Amino acid sequence: DADVTQTPRNRITKTGKRIMLECSQTKGHDRMYWYRQDPGLGLQLIYYSFDVKDINKGEISDGYSVSRQAQAKFSLSLESAIPNQTALYFCATSDAGPERDTQYFGPGTRLTVL
Amino acid sequence: KNQVEQSPQSLIILEGKNCTLQCNYTVSPFSNLRWYKQDTGRGPVSLTIMTFSENTKSNGRYTATLDADTKQSSLHITASQLSDSASYICVVGASGGYNKLIFGAGTRLAVHP
After folding, report:
1. Using a CB-CB distance cutoff of 8 angstroms, which residues of chain B are in contact with residue A44?
2. Neighbour-count burial of B11, counting CB atoms closer than 10 A to its CB (0-12 exposed, 13-18 middle, 19+ buried)
3. Which is nearest to A65 in space by CA: A51, A52, A81, A50?
4. Residues 2 through 41 of chain B touching chain A, CB cutoff 8 Å
5. Residue A96 CA to its chain's centroid (Å)
6. Residues B111 and B37: beta-carbon distance below 8 Å
7. Which of A89, A110, B31, B98 has the greatest number of C-beta atoms within 10 Å?
């Protein structure tokens, strides 16, 4: 089984709809991240969390919110989706020790907003 | 502004040939540099990581080099295989705070038989 899973893998929605993307991990890592990837651009950080009670904005948090329900679960919500949020979304995890900069990525969710 | 630039954007090579991908960065303060491989439809997977004091790191047929003075890195792939077809992403870590990662846009490599 994959260490970092994301659901759904693909989603098509309409402008104005609320969407939730979910991420679960079995690596036992404290740190979790949400990124978006657009064609021709590097991954951009949306939100990150260092433990269940910690939520931090990344570079592009506007229009998004997150919830860290447990150590293993980190969900990303688009409150009112818009077409320029069409992108590939990745969840990632890392531990807090010496290897804290090694992030393990999920398979991604392809989101299309019409 | 922290930036990571990769070249070329895309590359086609024949199976068995070698290739070198380039990464230039302006990230301060520098913490580390790593290369990730991203297969189509999958998340990135770490290949190598180098800190300021390291100038080369190998992982099988992949060899990464780092010149911290010129702020350049390269990823050399030896004896390419069809399974090497993927995007290769250079990621630079900036120290401080949560050790922010700055991602390059990647080089898309296609290995043809």
Report:
1. 103
2. middle
3. A81
4. 4, 31-32, 34, 41
5. 18
6. no
7. A89
The DSSP symbol for A30 reads S
Tokens in use for A60? 């592009």
Write out pLDDT tens, residues A13-45. 999 999 999 999 999 999 999 999 998 888 999
Of B44, B89, B105, the CB nearest to A40: B105
Contacts of B50 in chain A (CB under 8 A): none
Give the tens place of pLDDT for each residue, B20-66: 999 999 988 888 899 999 998 889 999 998 988 889 999 999 999 99
B59 interface with A at CB cutoff 8 Å = no
DSSP class of residue B76 equals E
Strands (E) across B54-96 are located at 56-59, 62-67, 72-77, 86-94
Q: Which residues of A touch B100 (CB under 8 A)?
A: 45
Other Cβ atoms less than 10 A from the Cβ of A82: the count is 11
Strand B10-14 to strand B107-112: parallel, antiparallel, or no bridges (unpaired)? parallel
CA proximity to B44, closest of A37, A59, A47: A37
Beta bridge partners of A72: none
